[in-house]
Design brief:
about 220 residues, alpha+beta, Pnp Oxidase, Chain A, 6-stranded antiparallel barrel, two-stranded antiparallel ribbon, 5 helices, binds flavin mononucleotide
Length: about 220
C-alpha cells in the first residue's frame, strides 16, 4: 500500500522550500547512498540532449538555485558553457517523490569553487587533477600513472583547485513537484517564474506562479 501523500492543498509560494525539505528528509532517512544524486540534462549546439548523474550540493530557495560541481572541460561542462540551460531531476523512490527543475546555468564564483574544493577529501582533490573528464584514456594503467604523478607533485602540500574544475548554479525557472498517489492519482504541480540576464548574471524577474497538473 502506498502512503496517502499529496502536496499541500494550497500550493506553497516557493517550491524550492519544499524541494529542500524533501532533500533533507531523504538525507536523514538514508534509504539510498546518494540521496542528493540528480540526473542532469544538457544540450549540445545541435540540440542533442545528454543526461548523467551529478550530486546536488545545495538547494537554495532564495534566490532559487541548485549548485553542483564538475570539470568545466567535460562534455557537460562544455555544453553548459556553450548553451547555459539545463534540466535536473531527483527521484526518491522510497519517499514516492520526484522533483524536476529547469532553468539557466552559470558558473559559481572562483571563491565558491575554491571553498568547496578545499572541503573535499584529498583523494577527490587529487582525482580532479588526474582526470581529463570525458576525454579518451588509453588504458587504466595510464590513468593510474597520471594519479601517481599527481600524488608525487603535491606530496606534503595542499592540493589547489585546478582552473578546469568548479561549480555551476542552476537558476530555476520551472520547478515541478510530484508525489505518488494511490490508483495512479499522483499529485503534481508546476511553478514557473522569469529569470533575466542581469549585468552580473541571472536576475529573478517575476515571482513564482503555481499550477496543479493532471498526473
Ligand atoms: C552517484 C553519482 C554521482 C556523481 N556525481 C558527479 C558529480 O557531482 N560531478 C561530476 O562531474 N560527475 C559526477 N558523476 C559522474 C557523471 O555521472 C558522469 O559520468 C561524468 O561527470 C561525465 O559526464 P559528461 O561526460 O557528460 O560530462 C556521478 C556519477 C554517479 C553515478
Amino acid at each position: 500500500m502506498l502512503p496517502t501523500q499529496a502536496l499541500p492543498e494550497i500550493l506553497p509560494s516557493n517550491p524550492l522550500v519544499l524541494a529542500a525539505e524533501w532533500l533533507a528528509e531523504a538525507t536523514r532517512r538514508a534509504d539510498q547512498p546518494n540521496p542528493n544524486a540528480m540526473v542532469l540534462a544538457t544540450c549540445d549546439t545541435a540540440g542533442q540532449p545528454a543526461a548523467r548523474v551529478v550530486l546536488c550540493k545545495e538547494i537554495q530557495p532564495e534566490p532559487g538555485l541548485l549548485r553542483f560541481y564538475t570539470n568545466y572541460e567535460s562534455r557537460k561542462g562544455r555544453e553548459l558553457t556553450a548553451h547555459p540551460r539545463a534540466a535536473v531531476v531527483f527521484h526518491w523512490d522510497h519517499l514516492h517523490r520526484q522533483v524536476r527543475v529547469e532553468g539557466r546555468v552559470r558558473r559559481t564564483t572562483a571563491e565558491d569553487s575554491d571553498q568547496y574544493f578545499a572541503s573535499r577529501h584529498r583523494e577527490s582533490q587529487l582525482g580532479a587533477h588526474t582526470s581529463l573528464q570525458s576525454q579518451p584514456v588509453e588504458s587504466r594503467a595510464h590513468l593510474r600513472q597520471r594519479l601517481d604523478d599527481v600524488i608525487a607533485r603535491f606530496a606534503g602540500k595542499d592540493v589547489p583547485r585546478p582552473a578546469h574544475w568548479g561549480g555551476f548554479e542552476l537558476w530555476a525557472e520551472t520547478v515541478e513537484l510530484w508525489v505518488e498517489g494511490a490508483a495512479r492519482l499522483h499529485d503534481r504541480a508546476r511553478w514557473t517564474r522569469r529569470i533575466e540576464d542581469g549585468t552580473d548574471g541571472p536576475r529573478v524577474a517575476s515571482p513564482w506562479s503555481a499550477t496543479r497538473l493532471h498526473p
